[in-house]
Amino acid sequence: MLLEVNNLKKIYTTRFGGNQVQALTNVTFDVEEGEYVAIMGESGSGKTTLLNILAALDKPTGGDVLLEGKSIVHLGEKEISAFRRKNLGFVFQDFNLLDTFSVKDNILLPLVLAGEEYTTMRGKLHPVAQQLGISDILEKFPYEISGGQKQRTAVARALITNPRLILADEPTGALDSKAASQLLKLFRQINEAGQTVLMVTHSTMAASHAKRVLFIKDGRVYHQIYRGQMENEEMYHMISDTLTLLATGGDHYE
Amino acid sequence: MNKGNRGMYRKLAMQNIKNHHRTYVPYILTCICTTAMFYIMNFLNASKGVGKLPHGADVQMILVMGTWVIAIFSVIFLFYTNGFLMKKRKKEIGLYNILGMEKKHIARVLFWEICVVAAVSLVLGIFLGIVGSKLMFMILLKLIHMPVPLGFEVSVDVIGNTVLLFCIIYLMSYLNNLRQIHLAKPVDLLSGEHVGEREPKSNWLLALMGLLCLGGGYYIAISTESVLTALTYFFPAVILVMIGTYCLFTAISIVVLKLLRKNKKFYYKTRHFVSVSGLIYRMKQNAVGLANICILSTGVLLMISTTVSLYVGRESVLEGRYPREIQMQVEEQELSDLETISETLLQEYELKAEDELRFHFTNEIMLREEDGFVSQPEGGYTSEMTDKVVGVAYIPLDEYNLYSGREVTLKENQVLLFVNTKKEYNKDEIRIKDKTLQVKEELEEIFIDVKSYLPTTTTYYLVVDSLDTARKMVEGAKYGSPVCSFFMYNLEGDESRFIDFTDELMERMRDKYQDEVYWMVEGRSANRDTFQRIDGGFLFLGVFLGCLFLMGTTLIIYYKQVSEGYEDHYRFQIMRKVGMSKKEVKSSIRSQILMVFFLPLVMAMIHIAMAFPLISRLMALMYLTNVPLFAVCTVATAGVFAMVYGVIFLFTARTYDKIVNV
Prior knowledge:
The structure holds two protein chains of two kinds. Helices cover 37% and strands 26% of the residues of chain A. Chain A is an alpha/beta fold. In chain A, the strands form two sheets. Chain A has a six-stranded mixed sheet with strand order 6-7-8-3-9-10, sandwiched between helices. Chain A has a four-stranded antiparallel sheet with strand order 2-1-4-5, covered by helices on one side. In chain A, helix 3 (103-113) packs parallel to helix 5 (147-159).
């Protein structure tokens, strides 16, 4: 098992100790090596909180997260950074590229942080850039390229460290439909090449590309769908129906 | 518009100021301080209390300059700061616009805001000014050695001036804000800050120009030997260095950073990677601000170090200018006349003369050409001559022997040579006009440093065999003086009578010579007061303006920190997500900021160090020839300044940390 999430709880307390907000009530699920999992839910359902905890950017109030059997919840600040660098790759809705770096330097950033030699870096850069179709724009800066290109740069940055797990947070959120479908195709290819992907989204379209979809509501995993032999279109309808049920009060579903 | 609505705009304005307290509080504080400082300076130069003091008018002349400097500084600086505040608020204003406020309504909110700022800063500023003016008055009097009178003065005129000046400034700021709102489209206003900025281009031409300007300025400062040249080239040098500084921060820095980036081995290291690329952008946004900080700091350092040294070194200045307590001089008359006049008067005043010096002396302003010295041509001094103008002075041998205790003999065509710039002449012959003289010996020192009479130029002192020879050497010279008799001595006795003695001595000389011949009497004590007024006035002005500029520098630093903070917050988060630890991110950002803010300080120090030779030559014009004293004052000023700068940096860095760590 690559990732195990056990009874995860997260309670936010407002600064003066007044109100408590329960973002995650009790979340449990597993991700196996080579899977492509989408987590769906409406805004406020706790998706982002979950992702932040998985990325070790936030600490849970209770429960545990194990990556390859090792808990990441109790790591110290220094280990967490190294852990993140070695094991995780991130793709965000708003790309999170640094304006001050060229496309190439943005991609190399995690490797530089890891202290690798320039020659090794260069060796890793070209295959990834080729795979993502951004070899021509390596010397450009983020403000000079399109949204789709930016997101592919971000994917390249996530991939270059050869991570155990890619975490994507609404990766198609800021893209037009053409760029979005290109990106989803890309994710699929990456996954088929053996990369484990965990994506958080509320786009049915995006989720329909995944092999498994988890639905979160009120801080709990409510339901999941496996693709099995389904085509994208079939998957799309299935997700869409589930969302309708959830929205109209899917209590009976459990 | 009905009454309720008007109240709403006012409330909204108050609310806005409260919400933006991080940027508005320092702005209002600056407004208050500049208002108070303007009031104080204007009060001092207009105050009857100061005017009534002996030499008060001189001091007020100096302070008028200060008032103008503060007025100009206030306009530029408050206008600039207001612009900065507006830039930060574009998004908010765009939002109002989209939420249905018309531009004229926004204008009304902004109007109330500036009214609040103006009212608060004028009331508090003038109050602070009135209180401070008394304090500053006392400090000024202390500095110029005057007794402090009782009483308290409030000048309505000065309040009027202050209100007028600052209302104009606020009005200008308001009009500028209106212009900005008017020009802007709501969508642009909304998207405001986060448009990815274009990477700055390497501008080799500008960088090269900057290097040349800096080099040129430094070269002038270091290589200039004569005081006259220093005076002529001082402002060109200042301008060159200023241009160079702007180029340094805008172009040279970028060129250097980009070269570093090209060096892959260096660039792709964790520490350098983030800093170098970050600095390229920071330099683009901050170059002009940093150059301003650098120039302001240099100005502060120069002002304070020179005025402090003049003040501290007053006695040495007085000694340089007046080698003895009393110096008397008369042209083409017997020296014994001077002695007679002095002796009678000394007896009347029950004083004794000591360290008496009697000598004769003649000199000519000449040009030093390759093959010798020639008379300065008719038509006077032109700027091409700057490097060649020298003084040539003649002293008779018997007087030299008397005061040096030596027994040198000279033939008619032989001379002893002394050059006051310590540069050895190193030739056996000296050719003056059509005469060639043999240099028998080059002297290490001469019995009296006649520097006080010819302070500005390189002077060649020639000891000649007799007074007649000296007289012949300057015969017919247009820019020469006839033989002067000098009589100088220190006074021993009741010091309180020195000044009266000097005045009376002057009267006696006037009785004897009328205006028929040129004569002069100077007393060190009699002139000490004037020096005290002027040095004290300058010191006051220097420190006062120094504080003002320092405040300006502080505010620029603070605002830079705040705006950087907001941007870095975003960068900080991305880097955290990509796998940099909190500590790494913090230290990397810290080091960038340190570099950005201490670069101007370091450059200012370098400027000062380079300017030192030039400034110390100019100080010689003010008779401050005590270079070590000036050096100590400069180093001390720089040290204090660096400490204050560091404290300000640490203080503002805390705000920065708060913003970044939200």
